[in-house]
Design goal:
heterodimer, A: about 280 residues, alpha/beta, Elongation Factor Tu (Ef-tu), domain 3, Rossmann fold, seven-stranded mixed sheet, 5 helices, B: about 300 residues, TIM Barrel, eight-stranded parallel sheet, 8 helices, about 20% strand
């Protein structure tokens, strides 16, 4: 759908883009948007995927992005009034608990983009929600104030100690799960962070739901680029598309140590003399 | 009067001139949210193999100027799951379906064709003898006229159906016309061209190839002139051979180049990743391009660039 940019403004190290999106339906936290970059006829053919920050059905769609590659640099040069092409919402969202259980939300950097929406949904189901936001440094944090307005608590960590606790999100996570008897951990951020969060959750008896970051070409399930080794209900590992079967996966189902490989026991894995 | 865009590939009549390209639309289902798949010329499925196949390690993709490299490595569920889930959906939704098949060896191609000849809903075969994402370059059957012909002869011997058998050719050869002659002599009804070109991108921070599979197939508008050239050469040598053209088509104008070079229909591939509605849009644009030039039908333009 064609979307006119309503506003684009820096937030710390990131950019916050609000789009007029008259065709946007209801969005669930964890859904993502695929944005065409470079203009019609340009040399960049592939969309860029961003988790949706907020959306109002029939009205607006908001994304947060970092200008670091050629595509996002182009996006950063767009101004209010310009039109961009967006496909949204895509992907499977976070699965919400049926019971009002205590939950922890963990996010790294702009991985916090979908978390205000998620925190609101969890709170509306009666869940206690504690949040951990981490980043390398203060200006790479996102959403701290907004989440403070929604969650029961927000703990900040930075690698360099410029804000909150000096250290990683996982340094405070175990205590928080224990203290609040959290049963579910929701996470979005870089893959090494997700792996560590999933491990801490598991060690402390909580389920985890992780929104992964994998490079995608299409975002709609046709290109088979964004696959991860995922353990299925039947115990079999398959190379699964993060765009349509994710981006949210159960943390205990992702074979984190085998990401970027094809495990030898995965369905259809190469074998000597075969492929 | 609107331009007549109906066309054919051998015995297969197509109601529209644009098809999906193998590997760029899975088995069609995912595109249904962007358009009515039954109105496409056909869905050409991602290549199906006998057994489930994991494909290669990630990263599998690198964007390149006006194109991309992929090293998927023929990930797929295997023929059993394909018949049960994908082909059934295509058939139930009245989608014209060309099944792309890929084998590890000549016998496997034959086995796949034998199975597909017995089921409903297969309107044609595209024999993928040219996937570059295999461990051994010796497996790229289309790089050698003898192995290319062996695969086609084997498929032909078990394909007791009127629907066409197409051989998908690689541009990574010294003389694509020689390969085309070879598969024609082995009994194909037409050729699909071109598959991707073998390429590489190096990550200079990590100082290693960017793709998990090291090399990948280059596709997108970057390869379009190579495709037009290859089709032009093959049509010049074999003017009666039906050609399904593909390679970086992004607009109706691009498609018209392929038709003028000698293609009877076109497959839309990489552009679908960025624009899932492209196969429908391009068909419409092609109609406008023909109309604005005063043509009444697509068929009168096939190979027209050879007349002068």
């Amino acid at each position: 759908m064609k979307c006119v940019i309503r506003s684009i403004a820096p937030v710390g190290s990131y950019l916050h883009m609000v789009l007029d999106a008259p065709e946007i339906p209801e969005v669930q936290p964890g859904n993502f948007a695929a944005v065409a970059v470079g203009g019609v006829g340009g040399g960049m053919l592939l969309r860029r995927a961003f988790s949706i920050h907020k959306a109002t059905p029939g009205e607006t769609l908001e994304i947060i992005f970092a200008s670091h590659g050629q595509g996002t640099q182009w996006l950063a040069t767009q101004s209010a009034g310009d039109t961009i092409d967006v496909i949204a919402p895509l992907g499977k969202p976070f699965v919400l608990p049926r019971q009002p259980i205590p939950c922890v939300i963990v996010a790294g950097g702009y991985g916090a983009a979908p978390m205000e929406l998620l925190a609101r949904d969890l709170r509306s189901r009666g869940c206690r929600v504690d949040v951990v936001l981490g980043a390398a440094t203060q200006e790479k944090l996102f959403g701290v104030l907004d989440l403070k307005g929604v969650a029961d608590s927000v703990t900040v960590t930075t690698d360099d100690g410029t804000s909150g606790v000096r250290g990683r999100v996982t340094d405070v996570l175990a205590d928080l799960i224990q203290k609040n008897t959290a049963q579910a951990v929701y996470a979005c951020g870089p893959m090494p962070m997700l792996q560590a969060v999933a491990q801490v959750a598991q060690d402390n008896g909580a389920f985890s739901q992780c929104a992964v970051e994998e490079s995608m070409a299409c975002g709609i399930g046709v290109c088979m680029t964004c696959v991860l080794p995922i353990i299925g209900d039947d115990g079999v590992t398959r190379m699964v598309r993060s765009c349509v079967d994710g981006p949210v996966f159960r943390g205990d189902r992702v074979r984190w140590n085998d990401v970027n490989t094809v495990p030898s026991d995965a369905l259809g894995a190469p074998h000597p003399g075969g492929h | 009067m609107p331009v007549d865009l109906t066309t054919s590939l051998g015995s297969l009549q197509l109601s529209a001139p644009t098809l999906t390209a193998s590997g760029c639309a899975a088995a069609g289902k995912e595109l249904a949210q962007f358009g009515d798949v039954s109105t496409l010329g056909a869905v050409v499925t991602k290549s199906i193999m006998m057994a489930p196949r994991s494909g290669r390690a990630t990263p599998r993709m690198a964007e390149t100027p006006s194109g991309m490299l992929n090293s998927i490595g023929l990930q797929g569920p295997g023929i059993g799951s394909f018949l049960e889930n994908d082909l059934e959906w295509l058939h139930a939704n009245n989608v014209t379906t060309i099944v792309s098949i890929a084998g590890n060896n000549v016998e496997e191609f034959g086995e796949l064709a034998r199975i597909l000849a017995k089921v409903d809903g297969v309107d044609g075969l595209e024999v993928n003898i040219s996937c570059p994402n295999v461990e051994s370059r010796g497996q790229v059957f289309a790089c050698n006229p003898v192995t290319a012909a062996q695969v086609i002869e084997t498929v032909r011997s078990v394909w007791h159906s009127d629907s066409p058998v197409l051989a998908k050719l690689s541009p990574d050869v010294t003389d694509i016309v020689e390969i085309a002659h070879s598969v024609v002599n082995a009994g194909v009804d037409g050729v699909s061209m071109i598959n991707t070109l073998l390429g590489m991108v190096i990550d200079v921070d990590k100082m290693k190839p960017m793709l998990g599979g090291r090399t990948g197939g280059l596709s997108g508008p970057a390869i379009r002139p190579v495709a037009v050239r290859a089709i032009y050469q093959v049509h010049a040598a074999l003017p009666h051979l039906p050609i399904l053209g593909m390679g970086g088509i992004r607009t109706g104008h691009d498609a018209l180049e392929f038709i003028a070079a000698g293609a009877s229909a076109v497959s839309i591939g990489t552009v679908v990743f960025g624009d899932p509605g492209a196969p429908w849009r391009i068909a419409q644009e092609l109609g406008q391009e023909l109309e604005s030039r005063g043509y009444n039908s697509l068929s009168e333009v096939v190979g027209l660039a050879h007349q002068n």
